[in-house]
Write a structure and sequence with these properties.
Blueprint lengths: L3 E6 L6 H13 L2 E7 L10 H11 L6 E6 L3 H8 L3 E5 L3 H17 L4 E5 L10 H9 L10 H16 L1
Parallel strand pairs: 1-2, 1-4, 2-3, 4-5
The structure holds adenosine-5'-diphosphate (ADP).
Length: 164
């Protein structure tokens, strides 16, 4: 039986930093379930269905990656899909404190599930979905930072924002 991992996040929208991590995770694990969090209290810039479809398009070349969405406790979702590992990314020390808290809380909630941290390639260490959205909304170029489908979606998003 292979080892399955869950890579949870908002992916609002997916960036090349996320994809770099998925590539690294698919070398280590037999299946990587990229799980978009349905957060009723927080409306993303992109609706959940679009975040999922952008992820599906962007991960077409990664056969071990499957895209899904989930609500509720991450550890419950992980056991539901049979994953023993949670994958998260560490870009800089600033990610550490929050990630450390989450990892220890998840361990308390479910001792069998281990959180594994991966570091992206250096050129993605300053990259976040939030910064990409901000740059794109001001008309800056995000080529090379996001997959082509996301660059297109960001242009459409900007067009809509300008009209409203
Ligand atoms: P969340 O809202 O859960 O932080 P994100 O979609 O922003 O969701 O990120 C999901 C995971 O991917 C987090 O572990 C985050 O640290 C990681 N991540 C985000 N951007 C990058 C990047 N550029 N390189 C590596 N990891 C990243």
């Amino acid at each position: 039986m292979g080892v399955k991992a869950v890579y949870p996040g908002s992916f609002d929208p997916v960036t090349n930093g996320h994809l770099d991590l998925m590539q690294r995770a698919s070398v280590l694990f037999d299946e990587v379930v990229v799980a978009v969090l349905k957060n009723p209290g927080k409306n993303g810039a992109f609706p959940l269905s679009q975040r999922v479809s952008l992820l599906q398009e962007a991960t077409r070349g990664l056969p071990r990656v499957r895209v899904d969405s989930f609500a509720g406790l991450l550890v419950d979702y992980a056991s539901q899909v049979g994953a023993r590992v949670i994958v998260r990314g560490l870009r800089a020390v600033s990610d550490f404190e929050y990630e450390f808290q989450m990892a220890l809380m998840n361990r308390r909630l479910s001792a069998e599930i281990e959180t594994v941290y991966l570091m992206p390639a250096e050129q993605y260490t300053y990259l976040s979905s939030g910064l990409v959205k901000e740059v794109a909304s001001l008309g800056g170029c995000v080529d090379g930072l996001v997959p082509a489908c996301v660059a297109r979606a960001l242009r459409e998003f900007r067009g809509k924002e300008e009209k409203s």
